[in-house]
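Hello Y.,

Per our agreement to keep a running log of every chain we model this quarter, I'm adding this entry. I've kept the format consistent with earlier entries: sequence first, then predicted structure.
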Amino acid sequence: MKFIKIILPLFLLVAGSSCQSFLDVKPLESISDAETIKDQNSALTALRGVYSALASSDYYGTSFQSIGYLSGDNIQWTGSQSQVQEFINKKVNADNSTISAAWIAIYRTINRANNVLAKVPTVTDPTLTTALKNQYLGEAYAIRALAYFDLARTFGGVPIITNPTIAPTDNSGIKRSSTADTYAQVLKDLEAAELLLPTTVDRYRVTRKTVFALKARYYLYQKDWAKAEDFAGRLITDATNYKLLKPYGTFFQSDARGTTESVWELFYNGTTEVNSHRGQWQPQTTGGTRQWAPNDALVALLNNPAVGGNRSVLIAKDNQNRWYGNLYYRNPASDPTYIFRIAEAYLIRAEARAQQDKLADGLTDLNPVRDRAGLTALTSTTTATKEAVLLAIENERRVEFALEPHRWFDIVRTGRAGAVFGLTDANRYVLPIPVQQLLSDKALEQNTGY
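Predicted structure for the entry above:
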C-alpha cells in the first residue's frame, strides 16, 4: 500500500533530560494522529517521532545509507541476496526491496514532519512558548528538507507532500514534481528552518548551524560554488565548536560520541533505539553477519600510508583473515550515524573554491583533512591544475567517507560516473521508483530506462 495513502501513528515517548538523551527514549504506545500535538509535551513527543523516523533502520539506520555506499566502488556484498548485488552491479530493478523500504521510510519521516508543521502553530498551551514553537518547527522543516534532498538525489523528482496524511485518500494522485522543483522544496524548507532555529550548538538536534551544513551540501550539489563556500565556511570558522580531531579514529573509537567532529549525528541507545548497521558490518566472531565488507580496492587504499594514512582504523581482520568495516562496532548497537561531520565542510569548501579557480585556497581546505589523517600536504607544485585539485578532493572524499553514504552520490553529481564506474547509461544515475508505489498510485510515472 502506498505510504502517502495510509495513516501513520506517532509514538508516545518518554522525555530525556539532556541533549544526548533526546532520542534515548522508549516507545510506550501507538496513538492516533488525530489525538496528538495538543500541548507542549505532545508537541515534543511528535518532534521526537520525526527524529525516530529519520534514524529508523530503513532510513539513516541502514537501508538508505547502504544505497550510497553499495552503489559506489568501495564495498562488496558477501551474502546471497541478489537484490543487494544489484547496487554493486549498478543495475537496480524497480522491485528491489531496499529502495522500496527507503522510499517508505523517507516519506514516513516527511509525514511526521508535516504533522509537526501543521499542528504545532495551533497549540495554545502557555508552556509551549514562541521560542519553543519556532525551534520545533525549524527542526521539522530542516529534517523534511533533508528527506526531500535524499529523495531527489536518489530518485530524481518525486511527489511533494507538505500536508499530513491522516485518511487513506489523503495525498493520493499527486504526480511527481521535476527534480528542479524537488530541490527547490529543499531550499524553501532550509530557508524557513534557518529563520526559526537558535544559533546554539547541538550535535543531536538541528540548530541553525546544522542548517548551514545542509545548505553547504545543497549548494554543492547545485553547483552554486560561492554559496557552498560561504555556508561551509560558517562552520569551519566556528573552530571553538567544530574541529577535526587527531588521529582520525578519535571521533568514533572507544565509544566516542558527540565530539567536536560532529555537526549532526543520530543518537542510538542500543536497546530501544538500535543502529542496525553494526550487524551488517561486523563479522560472525563479534555477533555480526559481515554481509557487506570493504572490497580489495578500498582495503588497498586505506592500508596505503600515502593515501589512507591513519584512516586504516576503519577496517580490521576477523579470525578468518577477512577484512571488515569497523566504523560500527558497539555492542549493544548504539553506534551513532554521522549525517554531517566537519571534515565534509572542509572538503565542500575545498571543492567550491577549486571550482572558482581559487586553487591555493582549495588546497588550504583540503590539507587539514589530510593532516588529520597523517598525510603530507599537497602543494601547487604537485597539484598545479584545476583538474588535479578536483581529482585530489574526489580521492580524499573516497577514503575520508569510505564507510559513509557519499561515494555514489559524489561521482554522479560531478558527472564522472562514466569515467569512474564505467556507467555510461545516464538513466541509471537515478534509481527506479519502487514498483509497489507505481502499482498503488497510477499518478506516478517510472524513471526513463526502467
